[in-house]
Structure formats: structure tokens, C-alpha cells
Amino acid sequence: xxxxxxxxxxxxxxxxxxxxxxxxxxxxxxxxxxxxxxxxxxxxxxxxxxxxxxxxxxxxxxxxxxxxxxxxxxxxxxxxxxxxxxxxxxxxxxxxxxxxxxxxxxxxxxxxxxxxxxxxxxxxxxxxxxxxxxxxxxxxxxxxxxxxxxxxxxxxxxxxxxxxxxxxxxxxxxxxxxxxxxxxxxxxxxxxxxxxxxxxxxxxxxxxxxxxxxxxxxxxxxxxxxxxxxxxxxxxxxxxxxxxxxxxxxxxxxxxxxxxxxxxxxxxxxxxxxxxxxxxxxxxxxxxxxxxxxxxxxxxxxxxxxxxxxxxxxxxxxxxxxxxxxxxxxxxxxxxxxxxxxxxxxxxxxxxxxxxxxxxxxxxxxxxxxxxxxxxxxxxxxxxxxxxxxxxxxxxxxxxxxxxxxxxxxxxxxxxxxxxxxxxxxxxxxxxxxxxxxxxxxxxxxxxxxxxxxxxxxxxxxxxxxxxxxxxxxxxxxxxxxxxxxxxxx
Length: 490
Fold this sequence. Notes:
Helices cover 9% and strands 33% of the residues. The protein is mainly β. The protein is globular and about 60 Å long.
């Protein structure tokens, strides 16, 4: 479970950081600025992007990562000052001497912070006089973590297809500016029937570009592809190793079955933007399962695909193709959220609207033992992952004590115990446990205690295969979704 928030006195620590030149402006760098009323507008100035591990072991040294960015999320090299680190608990041990280490990519790391009290804790980074400040993601401090939580963006494009910058920029930004744990480049094999097809030799060269940023334990890049079919819809592909060929529609790999057959063992496939948009094709519901898809994109900067007519709809929704529709048709994979970006700025900490991307990009969290390519793919394949609208929320979800993504065999008529919890730097306004026939339980938290919440329910007696998942919406319109857990009666 996610413990209650720690609500103790704030401890302030001043940490000097050598930066060049001078700058100014500033404001609170919330999780997103952008296009709709439910997203706080960006302010002019300089911003801090602060990232901490989502789950840490009590008393174990952890690193706090910081990046100074402009209001557009670009690296800000014209800032000079010092960092102030404040925490929601005074039971925190800071390293001595205290220092922030500059990294070659331009970010900063404060190493060796120890959280000594279990619970959900918060860290704020700022400069003296608090002209530039930001809350890091919530941190769950536990005695014995079962899983680490790693964050990534699994859908983005370069100038090899519909994007605007080279592949190297995409991976560099993900690692050095967005401070992600993993990222995939998923260029289209052909964006439209009239566009230039992706060249196989160029595609295979992307693996070398990705390896330049590969640092197991720090950052894992994935060579991917958006297999783009106007007939069946798009599929995102992630290779376990370096690809040896390009399975494009133009090469004859023109059905979901052929796509799966063309991939090596261990490759992962996700359904992209299932209900589509004005420029992105929806998927053919009749093709569900034919490609043995592992995942489905429930959110991207194009909109929410969970159900029709959400508060962040895409520019065009195709009836009968939402995630809920496809679950009812038998889709049995996990949920991801992505940026689906075309600016080579995955997980931009200061997102803005453009073209068919009116919302902040999404993020996928995976539960894994280590930050390596095999471990991340194993988690995705198992559905041990959750999706957000870009915020690094805490989320736990289980049925009868079994983690999200599982497929449970239960006795016919069994009523399963469902548990969910969510943690945020914002307040949750509605939390639900969702099943095929609607919500099993709803929580509308007290605003005074709404940043860390728990919800429980029992399933109806299981008479046929069914599923449940957790979702929450916060005061800014941000959302989180667990991957579903399936129950199959024996």
C-alpha cells in the first residue's frame, strides 16, 4: 500500500550550483502547461524540472536530478544561481558536504539523500528568494520495495518520418532534459500513402544512435517503429535487440499477423491511438488479438482514448474503437500513455499545444526490478505498468494481493478483493475502480486529505471472464490508469 503523506516541518538546504551567465523570471513549474482549461497555463521565465525516484528504500541513498529549462522546455544555459532543497519531512539526511554535481548533458544531480521515515514524501527545488521553483514527483519511502518504478515515453517521431529533428536529438532530450528512465523512437514506416517511405538502411542505423545514449541503470533507449496501416490502424513495435529488418507495410508486412511473425521473440507490440484523430487512423476492432498485441495506448498528446467524449477528446473519435470498447471485445493487454510527439522533445516538462497535439504528452510507468532493456520489456509484456497524462503519480493496484497486469484463475462465484491507491502533488477529485459494467467503487476525497488516497471494493461473483482497473482524476484534469487485472473462473 501507499502510506499516508508525511506532514512534518520543512527543512531547507542551500546547495550551490555553478551555472554560466545570468537569467531571471520564473514561476512554479507544475506538471504541465498547455492547451485546455484543465491544464495550468505556462508562464514566461525560467523553470526547474526536479525528478526523484518514485519508490525508495528507507535509509538508502538516492539521487535528486534537476534541470533548468525555459518556458518552452528547452535547456536554459543562461541561468546563474544556487539551489535550495526543501522536504516535507525533517527526518531527512543530506550528504555532507552538500553539493550538486553538473552532468555533461547540462543537468544536475544531488547525490546521497536519505529518507529516514516511511511514507509519501515531497521535495521542492528552488533558488534563493524562490524566484524559480518546482515540486518533484511524490516519493514513496518503504522498508522493502518489491518493485522499482521507472518512467518513459514510448511513442515519438523524428525527421525520418513525421517529426522535425534527428533521432539523436530525441534520445538526448529524453535522457538529459526530460530526465526519463527510458524512451522509444517510433518513426512511421510511412506516415501517409503519399509520403516518403522509411528507408530500411536508415532505420537500422537508428540503433547505433540509440546506443550512444544507452546507460543501463540510468537510461534505456528503445528502437521502435510505428507500423502504420490505414486498414488496420497503427501498431507500436519495440525490439529487444538491434533490428535486422524493417517490417513495413510497403515490404509486404501488411497485416497484424504478418507483423507479429516478422518480429523476433521478445518484441512487444502496442496498439496506438485506437480511436484515432483527424490525422491518425483508428484501429479496426475486428483485428483485435490477430497480432497478439501486448499493450494499448490509453492516452497521448492527441487525447484520451479510454472512452468517447472525455474531457480531453481527440480531434476525431471513431465509434466502437475506444479502449473500453476493445476491452469488451476481448483485448487482454496493459495500458500505456505516450507523447506521440513530433518535436523530438519527449516528456517536455513545459508542454505546449501544436497541430494535432492539444494536450500534454503522456508517460508510462513500469514496475521492474532493474533499469535494463530486458526488465522494462518484461514489465510491459506482463502489463506491469500504468499510464498517466504526463504526471509522475504514485499508483498501486491489486486484486487478491496480485499486482496489475495479472491474469487470475479463481473459483466460479468468487468475490475478489480489489485495492487501489494513488499519490500526487495535487489533489484527487475522483477515484474509481472500473469493470465491464461500469464502476465498482467511487471515491471523492476530502480536499484536505486528497493527495494520497486509497480505495477498496469487491468484484461481483465471477461467473465469466472479467477485468478491473483503477483510474483517478486530479484537480487539474490530470489522470492515471492502472493496467487491468483479469479474472477467469474455473
